[in-house]
Write a structure and sequence with these properties.
- With 417 residues, this protein is mostly beta strands.
- Helices cover 4% and strands 36% of the residues.
- It contains 4 helices and 27 strands.
- The chain has helices at 13-16, 108-111, 272-275, 294-297, and strands spanning 37-44, 48-52, 60-65, 69-74, 77-78, 84-85, 99-103, 113-119, 125-132, 140-151, 165-168, 171-176, 198-202, 231-234, 239-246, 252-258, 264-271, 285-286, 289-290, 323-326, 333-338, 351-355, 362-365, 372-376, 391-396, 402-406, 410-416.
- The strands form 7 sheets. Strands 2, 3, 4, 5 and 6 form a 5-stranded antiparallel sheet that branches. The protein has a 4-stranded antiparallel sheet with strand order 1-27-26-25, with no helix packed on it. Strands 7-8-9-10 form a 4-stranded antiparallel sheet.
- Strand 15 and strand 16 form a beta hairpin.
- The chain is globular and about 55 Å long.
- Residues 1-22 and 24-32 have low confidence and may be disordered.
Length: 417
């Protein structure tokens, strides 16, 4: 983790991207002004990497474990039997490898299909489809496995795989790291013929005309142009976090958190209509500054491509982060959701962000395309202030309640108390 996420018209972004009322930000509820944020323990698992819910009965939460299990929490109780076990297929030798993501499409109740993102035993990224059991709704059928997409590994270091997934309508959004630790040595993030260092948007239904396990939506920016049809946006190092949400005015936005190299972490809040074809700048820039590999990564001096393009070669129209912080304040940004839980008082409608190394949580007002009104959450995950919680991610349940999970194994629900 320490080495570690032409534009559509805004008025038509929802329809063009197949979006329904997902991630809506509800109006702020009138709650007690004296209540303080607290973390309520929910469960202990092994190295959790993602947490989400599926369409259907509320009160059920799914948690992925790095080594290849999907666990189920029902109304706060961790079930002994896993939903899915693919440990014999998952490679997790490195901290950024493993079973990294899971997504349930809106048609899950009808089709029983869902998708997982993991690194295989040889380090490749694999997006696969499974189906839950017809008669046992909290058990998946491992033999229903179907390969959707494979992205080859680039070396044996296993880092920079991304892993965030979100299913909206028929579309599946994926974040993929550059795969070239350190310093994107293979120059993939700016290479439009590579799926590395990108946000991808695919339709995970098989394409009979090409034989692929997925389709590339016609509205993707490089369809019919130079570049891979699957690419939605590019120029990322390791986009560990990605979420699409709808604000109070009905506009759709994407929060992308990209983990930096040695100097800066960044948070991006982008109108979804402007994400299409956007270049987020890595490795020309790390945060807001030109990338410099420095003596640690380039002890014998840097080759020109290792420090990014000279200013004269910087392409116009780069998308700049809305918030950055240096490695004097943390080491790996962990992005959360925009809080929808009405019970969270004046925190409702705010974006929450943390860090893997530093036990500090921040919230922002994501008004429009700007992150403003930054403030500390004022609460600390176990083991407490001044001690790293190894925060590994955030998730939500069907009511919009926010969960935080630690690489140590603890899962906590954010509440007021």
């Amino acid at each position: 983790m320490m080495s570690l996420m032409a534009a559509l018209l805004a008025s038509t972004a929802g329809a063009a991207y197949g979006l329904g009322p997902v991630g809506d930000v509800s109006p702020v509820a009138d709650q007690s002004a004296v209540a303080k944020p607290v973390f309520k323990p929910v469960a202990e698992v092994t190295s959790p990497t993602a947490l989400t819910y599926a369409p259907g009965p509320k009160g059920v939460v799914f948690v992925t474990e790095r080594r290849g299990l999907v666990r189920v929490i029902v109304r706060g109780r961790l079930l002994k039997t896993p939903f899915l076990n693919i440990r014999n297929r998952v490679g997790s030798d490195w901290v950024e490898q493993g079973l990294l993501g899971i997504a349930f499409p809106p048609h899950y109740v009808r089709t029983r299909r869902f998708y997982v993102f993991y690194t295989s035993l040889n380090g490749d990224i694999r997006i696969e489809e499974f189906r839950r059991s017809l008669r046992k709704p909290l058990i998946a059928n491992p033999s229903s496995r179907r390969l959707v997409l494979r992205i080859p590994s680039l070396n044996d270091r296993g880092n920079h795989n991304g892993g965030a997934m979100q299913s909206i309508g028929n579309m599946l959004y994926l974040t993929v790291g550059d795969g070239g630790d350190p310093g994107d040595v293979f120059n993939k993030a700016q290479n439009l013929t590579s799926l590395r260092g990108k946000i991808l948007r695919i339709d995970p239904r098989p394409d009979q005309s090409t034989g692929r396990g997925y389709r590339s939506p016609a509205g993707n920016p490089f369809v019919g142009k130079p570049g891979r049809d699957e690419i939605l946006a590019y120029g990322f190092r390791n986009p560990h976090g990605f979420r699409i949400y709808r604000d109070a005015t009905g506009g759709y936005h994407a929060i992308v958190t990209d983990v930096g190299q040695l100097r800066y972490e960044e948070v991006n809040n982008q109108p979804l209509s402007e994400l299409r074809g956007a270049n987020f700048g890595w490795k020309m820039f790390e945060g807001l500054e030109p990338y410099d590999c420095g003596p640690e990564l380039c002890p014998n001096g840097a080759e020109p491509q290792a420090v990014g393009a000279p200013p004269a070669l910087i392409p116009p129209g780069l998308t700049w982060p809305d918030f950055t912080y240096s490695h004097t304040e943390g080491c790996a940004v962990i992005g959360g959701p925009v809080i929808r839980d009405l019970a969270m008082g004046d925190l409702t409608g705010r974006l929450i962000v943390g860090d893997f190394c530093v036990n500090k949580l921040l919230t922002f007002s994501p008004a429009g395309a700007v992150l403003s009104n930054r403030r500390s959450l004022g609460a600390y995950l176990p083991p407490g202030q001044g001690m790293s919680a190894n925060l590994n991610g955030f998730g939500e349940d069907a009511w919009g309640r926010v969960y935080l999970f630690s690489n140590y194994g603890g899962i906590y629900r954010l509440a007021l108390g």
